């Protein structure tokens, strides 16, 4: 049972990060390997400005970190266990609810 405020805050941060499809795609891309912002923007097909905002959110949530690499900055998951957690969450949701679609909260409450 979660009773410690810090446990709840950690889960809420992870939930906020996962609430946006672009941030989910970023986390999944970084699960595969560290990457540079320009490469991530190209891979995701979004502007660097938009990418920068999402990376800042993930940094603020403590899920990604930066690593200086010469004149460039590389992004990576803050902890390798996050990659395993993403895999576990993805497969658990598919296993439990593979025949259901999650609708947008604006359409029908929170799923």
Automatic annotation (TrEMBL):
Superkingdom in the source lineage: Bacteria
Q: Which InterPro entries match?
A: ArsR-like_HTH, HTH_ArsR_DNA-bd_dom, HTH_Metal-responsive_Reg, WH-like_DNA-bd_sf, WH_DNA-bd_sf
What Pfam families does the database record attribute to this sequence?
Answer: HTH_5 (PF01022)
Domain HTH arsR-type span(s) in chain numbering: 3-100
**SMART domains according to UniProt:** HTH_ARSR (SM00418)
What start-end ranges are recorded for coiled-coil regions in this protein? Answer: none
Q: Which NCBIfam families match?
A: HTH_metalloreg
Entry protein name: Winged helix-turn-helix transcriptional regulator
